[in-house]
Specification:
The complex is a heterodimer of chains A (278) and B (189). With 278 residues, chain A is of the alpha/beta class. Helix content of chain A is 43%, strand content 21%. In chain A, strand 4 and strand 5 form a beta hairpin. In chain A, helix 2 runs antiparallel to helix 4 and helix 5 packs across helix 6. The radius of gyration of chain A is 20 Å and the shape is globular. Chain B has 189 residues and is of the alpha/beta class. In chain B, strand 1, helix 1 and strand 2 form a beta-alpha-beta unit. Chain B starts with a strand and ends with a helix. The longest helix of chain B is centred in the C-terminal third of the chain and has 61 residues. The radius of gyration of chain B is 32 Å and the shape is rod-shaped. Classes of the chains: A alpha/beta (278), B alpha/beta (189). At the A-B interface, helix 8 and strand 9 of A face helix 3 and helix 5 of B.
Chain lengths: 278, 189
């Protein structure tokens, strides 16, 4: 493994921040080494300075994308903590459906949902499965489910919807697995009825959200922890702008918005909390 | 006892007995099925770490079908196929369908034990990863309970402080009334 030199830390940390918004603690040099060393070696670099220059010079941005893939944490599970999905099933979706059902039976119920750090897609597919289980006949509804992530690799796996047995075993119960996935060689592929409900695209959370429109429900779990406090403040402020006035925000179960965004108030439902705008 | 449970599926009684004896001698926990149908009903009731199955078997459920049944019912189960040299191509096809490995007949037992050891090592690593994950989940849920309680409590106090400020700035109230109301708000905090 190539060791990172103290004078390289600052340059590389700033570069990673510029391309991804991810703030890596410069005192934890191992974080840089474990994640970037293999890319550096693969490209024949003998130092991180060298990797940095190669990445800057690469107009195709392939190296930059590789670095983002390596730095971003794609740790995710189907139904990661049961809480948010029970919250969706028993509180958020029923209330949102009530609020959005038009008075004319000829019109459809429009609901837009965003998984802001979709990673390899498990969260958004879990949401889609909750919707399908709750509202069996989707013909009267127009659900738009969007998943975004900064990593190309994560987005392409999410779009493909194929998971190996290790990913499948974590969090998915047998009944749901058999109902919504098809065995595909040694892996499982999400069925078209669920795949067709969702869309994925690459998006950097440091960008403006104006192009994405307004959402009724936003999941932004376990991503802001990688940002500085200042960036976290700005992120949730822009999320507040992108959320309908009666919309719902769900964050990671160990995250807090205290001191981050005064525009949101926490509310409790059973063992979970969600946020709404003041 | 080794830490693997193995289901042996083979229609040939000689090979079946041989596998049972050799695996039992190595202290594996072995169950025997004489064809695909018996294997299917056993798989419906039990989980095995490894299914060791002949590729070509009569009666409608061959090795490929056993593989598919095992994978459907128990994604974690590792399937190793036993095949004649002439059907190596179909064994490779089976690997694409999720088989872990294949062995050519006649069975080389050293080779079989080596593969079982590898499977066993992999399962040990997976087990410790699962243990770690469970420990992490316990820590995370304890932390999230604390954080969520604090989050709600801080929001409640914030709300009371805002009401307190309103009372103190409410000039329609007499001064002593303001103080009295403010004190009552303070007591709720």
């Amino acid at each position: 493994m190539i060791k990172i030199k103290p004078n390289e830390l600052k340059v590389i940390a700033q570069y990673i921040y510029d391309i991804s918004g991810i703030h890596l603690d410069q005192s934890k040099s191992y974080l840089f080494e474990t994640r970037l060393s293999s890319i550096a070696e693969e490209l024949g670099c003998n130092s991180y300075q060298d990797l940095y220059h190669k990445a800057k010079k690469d107009v195709s941005k392939k190296i930059e994308h590789k670095i983002i893939d390596a730095i971003s944490t794609n740790e995710t599970l189907f139904f990661r903590d049961k809480g948010p999905f029970e919250l969706m099933q028993h509180k958020i979706l029923p209330e949102m459906i009530d609020a959005r059902t038009p008075s004319s039976a000829a019109l459809k119920t429009n609901i837009k949902i965003w998984s802001a750090a979709a990673s390899t897609g498990q969260e958004l597919y879990s949401i889609a499965i909750v919707i399908k289980e709750l509202v069996n006949d989707l013909s009267k509804y127009n659900f738009k489910l969007l998943g975004t992530d900064i990593s190309d690799n994560a987005i392409s796996q999410a779009s493909y919807g194929k998971y190996n047995k290790f990913e499948i075993e974590r969090g998915l119960d047998r009944k749901i697995l058999q109902k919504y996935f098809t065995l595909f060689g040694d892996s499982w592929k999400i069925k078209d009825e669920i795949r067709g409900m969702v869309n994925f695209r690459k998006y950097n959370l440091m960008q403006s959200f104006a192009a994405l429109g307004k959402f009724d429900i936003i999941f932004c779990r376990n991503v802001a922890i990688y940002f500085t406090l200042n960036d976290r403040k700005q992120l949730f402020n822009r999320i507040a702008d992108s959320l309908a006035d009666d919309g719902f925000l769900v964050i990671g179960s160990t995250e807090s918005l205290t001191g981050v965004c005064p525009r949101f108030v926490p509310k409790r439902h059973l063992r979970s909390i969600f946020y709404q705008k003041k | 006892m080794k830490n693997l449970t193995i289901l042996v599926v083979d229609d040939d009684p000689v090979i079946r007995r041989l596998l049972q004896q050799r695996l039992a001698k190595e202290h594996y926990e072995v169950t025997i099925a004489e064809d695909g149908h018996v294997a299917e009903s056993l798989l419906e009731q039990h989980h095995y770490d490894v299914v060791l199955t002949d590729l070509m078997m009569p009666g409608g459920i061959g090795g490929i079908e056993v593989l598919e049944i095992a994978k459907q019912l128990h994604p974690k189960t590792e399937v190793v196929l036993i095949t004649a040299h002439s059907s190596v191509d179909s064994a490779v096809e089976a690997m694409k369908k999720g088989a872990t490995d294949y062995l050519e007949k006649p069975i080389n037992f050293d080779e079989l034990f080596l593969r079982l050891d590898k499977i066993s090592n992999l399962q040990t690593i997976l087990k410790s990863a699962q243990d770690l994950e469970q420990a992490m989940t316990v820590t995370e849920s304890a932390a999230s309970e604390t954080i969520q309680n604090l989050e709600i409590e801080i929001a409640r106090k914030q709300e009371l402080l805002e009401q307190l400020e309103k009372v103190l700035l409410d000039h329609t109230l007499a001064e002593d009334e303001r103080i009295e109301q403010a004190l009552s708000k303070l007591s709720e905090i």
